[in-house]
Structures are given as C-alpha cells and as structure tokens.
Amino acid sequence: MKEKLIDIGVNLMHRSFHEDREQVVARAEEVGVSPLILTGTSLKNSDEAARYAGRFPGKLFTTAGIHPHDTKNCQAHTVEKLRKLASLPQVVAIGECGLDYNRDFSPRDVQKQWFEEQIRLACELQLPLFLHERDAHYEFVRMLKPYLPRLNKAVVHCFTGSLQELQVYLNMGFHIGITGWICDERRGKHLAEIVKRIPLDRLMIETDAPFLTPRDLAVKPSEGRNEPAFLPHIMKKVAACLGRSVEETTEATTKTAQEFFGI
C-alpha cells in the first residue's frame, strides 16, 4: 500500500475550485494524498470549510481563523464565532493567523490586535496555531513569545524565510510547513539548502493550493492552478534536498502531521 501523504494547507473553498471541488479531493486521494487540511482564512471561509469538511469525516479537516489580510473585517463577535467553529470535530487548529507586512491589506495595528486574540483563543482551547508571517518576523516573534508556556503547538505555514528566522522558530518549538516554493529555481534556492536543518518530527508539507504551483512540474496545469494531487511532486523535491528516500520522508512527515493535528 502506498504511504499516505497529508497536505496540511489547502485553500479548497477558493473560487477556482468551485466547479470541481470533489474531483480535486478524489484526484488527491488517487495519488495517496489524504487526508487534506483545509485552511480557514476568514469567518465566512472558515465556516464554509468546516461545513464542507464535515461531509467527509476522516478525509477532510480544517482550521478556523482570520488571515491578517482579512482582519480589517473583524467585529466584536469574531472570536466567539471562531470558538464555536473550533468545537466541531473536523476543526483541528486556529488560523491561518499572523502578520503580513508585505501587502498590508489590513492596518498593522488591526493585524496585531486580531493576531493576539487568536493566539489567546488557541491557548484557551489548547488547539494548535496555523501561522502566517510575511516581512514581519521581529514583531511576530515578539508577540508569540509571552504565550509559549501556554501554547499547545504551532506551525509556521508556507515558510520561505532565512536560515536565521528558521532557527528562531525551531528554538521556539514551532513546526515548519514547506510548500512548492522549494521547487522554484529562482526564489526557492535558499529553501532547498536550509530545509535539511528542520528535524523530521517538525517538518510538514503542503501545497497551499490553488497558489504556489511548483514551477518545475513536467506538465503544467491549465490556468496554472495548484492542487493537492501535486503534493507527491513537492515531496520528491523535499526528500532529495534532505538526502533521504521519498518513502522515509513521507512516513515521517505524515506521522508528524498526524501527531500535530491529532488526526
């Protein structure tokens, strides 16, 4: 039997999947990618993801959270609604939450306010945090540090940072999510070199579909859309960078994801 791979970050409720969502899940399963963990990025999106995942118990799980881009839309009831979503069995983490000082789609003070609210919620519920950080490393670390004693665990999703940043996250006890960014011969070169610094029991892989389609796919998807069925391609690249077999790396990252998300 083929070793299962877990995609820890799929934006399955994205509009690009509206026409063929179930086929996307089926194609992933055909190549051994199952279960999938859907990413919640807003209240509406987290609710839709939880409802959809609830139809496929054991196959689909989801996070519930507010991406920094969407924090400008948060209201007084936001945390209470996230708390309610988090009580569902298919919801396995709080997030995607964090700071994004690259695009600044929400004001930075608003991003910080709602990031802190979600850190507190994760601590209260003892759920893992699914984290996003872009060009905000110092502030991100500063905000998380006081909560480390109470935090269950956390993964820095779609890590693309420097070796120094990686070391800080590992020292904080965080897990690291690696995407098809590592397959990009232009932007991902440094990632291919430093991924070997991540212990196997802290390493997880993800597509971040429909984004970050691996640039080195032999057959490019129409319209450039990424999907979970491409995760084995990313795994091959990660295993090669680690100097380990695909089988060993698959087994290790799957076990890590199962333990991290409690699935």
TrEMBL record:
An annotated Gene Ontology molecular function: hydrolase activity
Keywords: Hydrolase, Metal-binding, Nuclease
InterPro entries: Metal_Hydrolase, TatD-like, TatD-type_Hydrolase
Pfam family for this entry, one: TatD_DNase
Key word Metal-binding present: yes
Known EC number: 3.1.21.-
Matches recorded under PANTHER family: DEOXYRIBONUCLEASE TATDN1, TATD FAMILY DEOXYRIBONUCLEASE
Record-given protein name: TatD DNase family protein
